[in-house]
Amino acid sequence: MVEPLTKDYAEKLAQELDVYDDLKDKIYDLARKVIKNSKLCIYAVRRSNMEEAEKRLKEMEEMRTEMFKIAKDNPRLSTINMIFNADQEYVEAAAIYYFMKEGRFPTKEELETTVQEYIAGIMDAAGELLRIATDKMIAGDVEFAKKVRNVIEEIYLFMLHVNPRDYELRRKIDYVTNILNKLQEFIFYKEVMGPVKRITGSEE
């Protein structure tokens, strides 16, 4: 038999593949859990349950540490898209949590993430901020919605300065613009159209 294409060598490579596949499955499992916790963290923030949100955030941090440790030991594993998706979701959840708790966004360095995932996550946070602002407006808190509008505008201007060349990131800038316009429209209808309806007697 031609070297090294022997049965023994084949079995050795098969074992290495099994190890790789097991590690890949582990990364996918951790990434899915990070994504799930991200959504649960944001949902907890929307319900003003900051204790639950903090718990979910800490769980995500532990999962990310484990996920990155596995990927670091195998360069091929570090290129799995699921890792990037999970990290982006983590940034989004952390941004919402820190904004609602401390009125600020964490830096890339605080979150120990890459610039691409940080930028994407911060822009995605605009959508969740819109939902929170809408909830607040329904409860009568228009001033909070105005504060969120200003913050989303800051996100938009910040990203214009960052000026990413990546197509997907540039597309997200348009997403932030749409979110900003939508919130401005909601505020307009709440502040202007609402009183008009009350005057004309068309609002119950």
Question: If you had to describe this structure to a student in words, what would you say it looks like?
Answer:
This protein has 204 residues and is mainly α. The chain has 2 domains: 1-113, Methane Monooxygenase Hydroxylase, Chain G, domain 1; 125-204, Up-down Bundle (Methane Monooxygenase Hydroxylase, Chain G, domain 1), CATH 1.20.58.2140. It has helices at 7-46, 50-72, 81-102, 108-111, 115-138, 142-162, 167-200. α2 runs antiparallel to α3, α3 (81-102) crosses α5 and α5 runs antiparallel to α6 (142-162). The N and C termini lie far apart (88 Å). It comes from Ignicoccus pacificus DSM 13166. Mg(2+) binds at residues 92, 128.
What is the strand and helix layout of this fold?
Layout: H1 7-46, H2 50-72, H3 81-102, H4 108-111, H5 115-138, H6 142-162, H7 167-200
Helix pairs in contact: 1-2, 1-3, 2-3, 3-5, 5-6, 5-7, 6-7
Summary tags:
disordered C terminus, mainly alpha, 2 domains, Methane Monooxygenase Hydroxylase, Chain G, domain 1, 204 residues
Quick structural summary:
This protein is mainly α and 204 residues long.
The CATH class designation of the largest domain is Mainly Alpha
Strand content: under 5%
Along the chain, the helix and strand elements come as HHHHHHH
Total number of β-strand segments? 0
CATH topology of the largest domain: Methane Monooxygenase Hydroxylase, Chain G, domain 1
Structural class: mainly alpha
Profile the largest sheet. none
Q: Please name the CATH architecture of the largest domain.
A: Up-down Bundle
Q: What is the CA-based Rg, rounded?
A: 23 Å
Coiled coil: 43-70
Protein name: Haloacid dehalogenase
Binding site for Mg(2+): 92, 128
GO molecular function: metal ion binding; sequence-specific DNA binding
